[in-house]
Amino acid sequence: MNKFIEVSPAELNDNIFQKIGKDWMLVSAGQAGNFNTMTASWGGMGVLWNINVSFAFVRPSRFTYEFIEREKYFSLSFLGEGNRRALQFCGSHSGRDTDKIAQTGLTPIFDAQAPYYDECSLALICRKIYFQDIEPKSFLDPAISGNYRQEDYHRLYVGEILKVIKRA
Questions:
Q1: Where are the domains of the chain?
Q2: CA–CA distance, 152 with 145 (Å, rounded to integer)
Q3: Cα(44)–Cα(124) distance, rounded to whole angstroms?
Q4: Cα separation of 123 and 44, whole Å?
Q5: CATH number of 4-135+146-167
Q6: Which residues sit opposite 47 in a β-bridge?
Q7: pLDDT in tens for each of the 168 residues of the chain?
Q8: DSSP string, the chain
Q9: How many helices and strands, by DSSP H and E, does the chain display?
Q10: Which of 24, 66, 67, 128 could bridge to 29 as Cys pair (CB 3.0-4.6 Å)?
Q11: Nearest Cα to 157, choosing from 22, 70, 43?
Q12: DSSP code of residue 61
């Protein structure tokens, strides 16, 4: 029996604020043998330029940045219950220094475009269509700068959602 089914983005009815902001997600890019993943709690989904899109934010200091910059595709994976330790690990350790997959026991699945994980309940496979560096001069609320004490501003990636993969 297939563990996953592909659905239309219009069929998503999850609370995205819960999924991203509270449950967290893995942002991944690369190919088998050469990929990386990181935990993120900032992002979004919507419609832009008449395209179903996702938004992911990655700091240039993150190892995943090199992969998402190089690749045309990335994935957002939302893990099922019981994977909080793996998410915490992937958010606090660099793939430059440790094998996150070996340490967490996650099982990558290599889609033709980007990896996602056997442990996920939902994955989005996205094609990069736009990026923009966060510019502090554009902060209309000065309190936002408190998120950047080291001036390590994110790069925003907009991805066209090509596939939505849900656990069957």
A1: 4-135+146-167
A2: 10
A3: 12
A4: 13
A5: 2.30.110.10
A6: 52
A7: 569 999 999 999 999 999 999 999 999 999 999 999 999 999 999 999 999 999 999 999 999 999 999 999 999 999 977 899 999 999 999 999 999 999 999 999 998 899 999 999 999 999 999 999 999 999 999 999 999 999 999 999 999 999 999 999
A8: --SEEEE-GGG--S-HIIIIIII-EEEEEEETTEEEEEEE--EEEEEETTEEEEEEEE-TTSHHHHHHHH-SEEEEEEE-TT-HHHHHHHHHS-TTTS-HHHHH---EEE-SS-EEETTEEEEEEEEEEEEEE--GGG-SSGGGGGGGTT----EEEEEEEEEEEEE-
A9: 4, 10
A10: 67
A11: 43
A12: T
pTM across the whole model: 0.95
**Which tokens in the block code for residue 104?**
């967490």
Give the type of residue at 104: T
